[in-house]
Amino acid sequence: MDEPARLIYVLKDGARIGPFTLDDLLDLVESGDLSYEDACLRAGAVQCERVRDVLDWDEPTAVSRPAKPSPVEDPTDEEDPEPDQDDTPDDEEEEETDDDDWEDDLEEDADDNDDDASGPPQPHRRRRGPAPPPRDPRLILYLGHPSVLSFPGALLLIAAALGGGIWARDHSPWWLLAGLLVALFAVSWILFQRSLSLYVV
Questions:
Q1: Cα 39 to Cα 58: distance, rounded to the nearest angstrom
Q2: Which CATH architecture has domain 4-57?
């Protein structure tokens, strides 16, 4: 390829810039002044091309640049320090022991579950509650509700309400009415509680 054909003009922002060689184009692309998508025109050509097409097409003829020498590595840096021979085996033995114990526990649980599943069904044990009352009337000695004396708190409330109402009726008859209402409520509560309980002997 002759030298004029190697000259390339870049068409950018409505102007023709150049001429450039392939090395110049590479420098401009690496510096960011040009991109691979910019249009360019070879000297003597009538068809525009992209910068990347020109560089790819002319890559075999382009002047190869010397590769940058790699930094000399210190061979001593590549050598990793040897692990502590005393600590590492102990840690590995402890981890293996923990794994073995965990696997043994899982096997024991699985064996227990298999034994429970394969064994005979256990009879359901009912909780023994209080025996029901006998249905034969001849066997019943006593049948009734608890005594009123089983509610001493309610009896004291009735006495206090009636006594307070009678004592304060001289000041206002409303006190007597309030005492009667409280006493009536206490009596109703006693009757309700007695109806919920039944003694059978």
A1: 16
A2: 2-Layer Sandwich (3.30)
